[in-house]
Design brief:
Length: 491
Amino acid sequence: MLSVRELTKTFGGLPALQDVTVEFRPGEVHALMGENGAGKSTLMKILAGLQPADGGAIALRGKTVRFASPHDALAQGIAMVHQELMPVPDLDVAENLLLGLEPVNALGWVDRAELHREAAEWLRKLDCDLDTRQPMRRLSVAQGQVVEIAKALARQTDVLLLDEPTAALSDHEVAALFKAIDVLRRRGVAIVYTTHKMDEVFRLADRVTVLRDGRLVRTAAAAELTPDALITHMVGRELAQVFPPVVGEPGDVVLEVAGLTREPAYRNISFTLRRGEVLGLAGLMGAGRTEIAEALFGLRPAHAGEIRLHGRPVRIASPNDALAAGIGMVTEDRKGLGILPAMSVRSNLTLSSLERFAGLAGLDAAREARTADEQIRAFAIKTSGREQPIGQLSGGNQQKVLLARTLLTSPDLVILDEPTRGIDIGAKAEIYALIGRLAAQGKAVLLISSELPEVLSLTHRLLVLRQGELTAELDPRRATQEEILRHAIPR
């Protein structure tokens, strides 16, 4: 259906793709795997018409093609569903699904009855029974993705590109999405699927292509691979121990939270966190985990309750208050609340600690540059240099910049909200090791993660939230994933 031959692409002097050759077949799910910065997103964007290739050729149905824009690729049968969905939130489901394809009556007006009939028919092809009259803003992420897939089908798509489609989904929503993908496969659509989740690869993929540092490493049938072999292909080495052992005994209390409440997100939240301790916070999406973290960092302060640091009550009304109190946070919303994409790696690294570089005549640019270079080396950030715009870096390298920025403020309490979301297994292993080092240094770490193996393997204690309430405190050494879910799932 679609093939690329010797495709190349360079950004800022760094090769993103080097002579990549791969083909995608109808009725097949083809997983595209690799570490962040391996070239997966670049290849997807070229296929979707978002970026031009510097060299090589693309063939669609056996004929060489060039895509001048996403509209051009879509017109030729290639659609992409992005990790960050881009609906028109105040339009309804049918209006979004058939945007630009609206049926009209004899007078040239949109035929609304036919619009909703057609939209419902496209959704039924994916075994989905959504109310086409409800606004898009009311849909869950998974429902929004199904609408995006149906939108692609309505445009007679032959190739569907899915970029990390389950990154923000619950298990139930993932199952619904997989069902839709199976329907598309049976209809003969060629599906290109990028993910960092091994279980998804071996559940869905017919074939797997691995990229590393912009080069093709291997294409093979999924049945010929094992998770360990796939990891070795991706990172170029074996990761014998992804999760480091949890060591050390927690010390004095750093954080005390009593009766923290912000309705309707959470209520009556009380817990303590000690020096050298990694405290896990688990729960389903919407349980209130992120909202509690945001209250501790001053992004959305609680309406009631008390926060004490080192035994003293503190009022945290803004991130400035949090930073001054010795609290650092890495947000789950890397693109929306974390990075400033048009600014340099240097500026993003030093943004929260500029007072460290104050000189007699203003900012000491030379000292700031030296510090940025030190952090780039310390965190193994793949970049062409400190002045490269951070928006050009892979997700994993952007995450490393945010971690470095947070730690430059020398916090006593570090809040990590979904620190490994959307990054590869190699970068995850580096972040896991960093969490262990932070605890060993005496930092108090609050770890929020939807990945249950992470919170079970990395923490000293584990709190479980359900619909804004704390329902359990568990010992990760004895708890199971099933036990966590029993406390997390609404009854």
